[in-house]
Design a protein that fits this description.
Layout (H helix, E strand, L loop, with lengths): L17 H11 L8 E5 L6 E7 L2 E7 L12 H11 L9 E5 L9 E5 L18 H19 L6 H4 L7 H16 L8 H9 L9 E3 L8 E3 L7 E4 L6 E3 L1 H9 L9 H4 L14 H12 L7 H23 L6 H4 L1 H15 L3
Antiparallel strand pairs: 1-2, 2-3, 3-5, 4-5, 6-9, 7-8
């Protein structure tokens, strides 16, 4: 059985007109020849990803989700510019192919990138890959090493410097995510006032070493080589990338890192296979990052709490769409309880 991440039949509610898209690509993409086949990558809760195949060539189309979207989020043009800026120095990002701002083609802006064919680890390992302790640990070390290398890029280079404003980054993030949570609150979720007040009052001294940060860096957003599964060959989903504090990036990654000795409530929220024998625990992730990046770590509690809170906001934003009937995807309905657990875990970290 293959362990390669494969696309499936497109959901009716998220279908794309292949004839219309094919005609557009024939006009705008050099060397394109149909017919065009479209399938969909089913995982994820944010931007939609489709596999396009024509004349033996594969590429991936990314478009915003259907329904209400957060303001300033899901900017296809910006994500395309991020990939274009990173491509010369970070070979793990998908090669950008084309950006289309004309919503009349498929009903939304979109962009195309070359497909990185390989293994993506989701909640559980794919059936075709043995999750031995040696393999698990090697892949997690590769995950940390690639993040450290991303953070080591020269963010002052002209193409990268335009991606964000590092000055005041932490303060903007705390204020912005607090506002997003309030806008996305539904009657069935608890207050996060104690957590947001602590974050506002406990912000660290601004980092002297800003970096290009991914902002959604986790195991199901990277691709491993099918021929050498310990080798990381791709990093996906750059919609939130910017220039900012690299420790914020690391803290957001660790929010997804549920380990084997966590509480039953937290283990029930696990989205990724970070609990398996051989896995790094969160302390080992931090130690590995220090070793690979050369960056000293301060007290990491602020970054841990922020990561948990931000993840709670992300899932609450998605749950908001389900609560208000903007999507029928039943996966979204399960996110309400997850948000409550994350807020409770953040509160426990600060003794609230």
């Amino acid at each position: 059985m293959s362990s390669i991440d494969e696309a499936v039949e497109v959901l009716t509610s998220e279908a794309i007109d292949a004839a219309r898209l094919g005609a557009y690509l024939a006009e705008h993409l050099a060397g394109f020849s149909g017919p065009l086949a479209i399938r969909q990558f089913p995982a994820g809760f944010s931007n939609l990803s489709y596999l396009l195949t024509a004349d033996g060539r594969e590429c991936v189309l990314r478009r915003p989700p259907i329904g209400t979207r957060p303001r300033s989020g899901h900017d296809m043009g910006r994500e395309f510019r991020v990939l274009s800026a990173l491509a010369p120095d970070f070979p793990e990002c998908p090669r950008p192919v084309h950006h289309c701002a004309d919503e009349s083609v498929i009903g939304a802006p979109f962009y195309l990138v070359e497909r990185i064919r390989g293994i993506i680890l989701r909640r559980d390992y794919p059936a075709g890959l043995a999750a031995t302790p040696v393999m698990v640990r090697a892949q997690q070390h590769a995950l940390v090493a690639t993040l450290a290398r991303l953070h080591g890029l020269d963010c002052r280079a002209p193409a990268l410097a335009e991606l964000g404003r590092p000055e005041g980054y932490v303060a903007r993030q705390v204020a912005g995510w607090t506002e997003r949570y309030e806008r996305a609150r539904t009657p069935d979720v608890a207050s996060a006032d104690a957590v947001t007040a602590w974050l506002a009052a406990s912000q660290p001294v601004e980092s002297r070493y800003p970096a290009v940060i991914h902002n959604d860096y986790k195991l199901d957003n990277v691709v491993f080589d099918a021929a050498d599964p310990a080798r990381l060959i791709g990093v996906l989903d750059w919609e939130m990338a910017t220039v900012g504090d690299p420790l914020m990036d690391l803290g957001c990654s660790l929010a997804y890192w549920v380990q084997a000795d966590d509480s039953a409530e937290l283990l029930a929220t696990r989205m990724l296979p970070t609990h398996l024998p051989g896995s790094l625990n969160r302390s080992e992730v931090l130690e590995s990052y220090v070793s690979m990046s050369g960056r000293a770590l301060p007290d990491f509690r602020f970054y841990r709490v922020f990561g948990l809170f931000r993840l709670a906001v992300i899932v609450q934003q998605i749950y908001y769409r389900y609560f208000h009937g903007e999507t029928r995807d039943q996966r979204f309905g399960a996110l309400g309880p997850l948000g409550r657990v994350l807020i409770a875990e953040a509160a426990a970290e600060i003794g609230a």
